[in-house]
Amino acid sequence: MTSIESITLEVADPTAAQRFYTAAFGLDTQVGLSASEAPTTGFRGFSLSLTVSQPADVKAIIGTALDAGATPLKPVTKSLWGYGGVVQAPDGTIWKVATSARKDKGPATRQIDSIVLLLGVADVAASRQFYVDRGLTVAKSFGRKYVEFETLSSPVKLALYGRRALAKDVGVPVDGSGSHRLVLGGDAGTFTDPDDFAWQATTVASAA
């Protein structure tokens, strides 16, 4: 099964970004950082979601993210699917923190159950087939709206969402251009997908 071994955010200042991600979310090894001044404007076409077990954890993590310098995009609120909020990191990456639970079972632990990378794509069905052709296995699919892949060995799950729908979900205008400032690493090889998201091969061949 094809897997994602790494996800790297390209940022202007990796040291400052690392301080933010450690303070805001408690992330250190799950998301890599590299220096880049690649031009980009507006929505970068993706977001990262942190799934937690209860509303108290959503509020706690969003709170520390704001204290660490994040910009609020959507306030923490209840919805039909659960409870969540959205912030933008100082480096420009959009993060959603959410839970399907509606009530707390205890005090906040700040434990992150999963990290999901959502790629906003022009054609969900076409991108789904592109990734299937490269060895990824579909775990969930809702027609042309949403696709989630099996990435059992990866700390980050991969999903596809329509670009316009994703922008609406995280509370930003859909317009954007330039670099995504995102690089995915895995054993599927080195390629660029239909929406210009870049992948790099990370599997090292064994010596003969």
UniProtKB/TrEMBL annotation:
Protein name per the record: Glyoxalase
Superkingdom as given in the UniProt entry: Bacteria
InterPro entries: Glyas_Bleomycin-R_OHBP_Dase
Organism for this UniProt entry: Streptomyces aureus
